[in-house]
Amino acid sequence: DTGPRASFGYELRRASSSGNYFQAVAQGSRIQQTFQARYVIPGKNPTSSRYSILAGITANVPGDGRYTNFKTGADYVTQWLGFEQTISLTYQREQFRVHPDFPDENTQYLVPEISWLKIKSNDRVNSNKGYRVYLNLKGGPSLNDSNFFGQAELQLKWIYSFHRNQRIILRSDLGATGVRNLTTLPLSVRFYAGGASSVRGYSFQSLGPGRYLITASAEYQHRLYKKWYWAAFYDAGNAFDNPPIKLERSAGLGIVYRSPLGPIELTVAHPFNQQETRFLKGLRIQFVLGPDL
Known about the structure:
Helix content: under 10%
Number of helices: 0
Order of helices and strands: EEEEEEEEEEEEEEEEE
């Protein structure tokens, strides 16, 4: 999605005698550069709760736009009814441009946020059966003007294996934003679709930006030999500001190797939108590596 990328990380595992630790990670690619530092304080139960103080900066070029975002804040992670719950408060300052023909906008927001994550699987790296549920709620006031936004996003993924050699993978991502003035809503907060983990066949974050998000995917995998599978899939979705909804669609084939690091999948997808037929006469090759859930 982002092209060749270099990463550098540093971790101080013993920042104090009480178990505090420090992490810093920098990543750079042609379209995205990030740096984040985090100081972590274990909670009452260190295996399931922690406090963090963080700061970071991101420069990104999504679609036709671009933005530079600085944020700092704190969060608290704990367990609640079987979910990993994260509560945070973040100050973010952002300079962005939605399109090269538009002027730059400068915004400052104070954003409280809460999220819940639940993963259930026989193996989180290479799952035969399992699911992932993620719900995020956030919003807050602008410190520049009277603007205010509220946002909700729900991500779902379900994996089911049968007859030992076959797998079905279903996933969906739904989001909605309420905002007084869309013009000054930071680009990093708006929704995008497209990419190897979204609507395949479309380039990374090429669909959007939008106040709303709908994506869905269905994939069938069949074992070829040992850890090798072939895959067929159908994706649909878009990020948009107002109805009517126009869902961009794609379909394709892939080859999957279930490695110790998680599935390695190489796909070839055809987008059913003639604007995306620039590569190999309408085909786009994409690559994913990482845990199933």
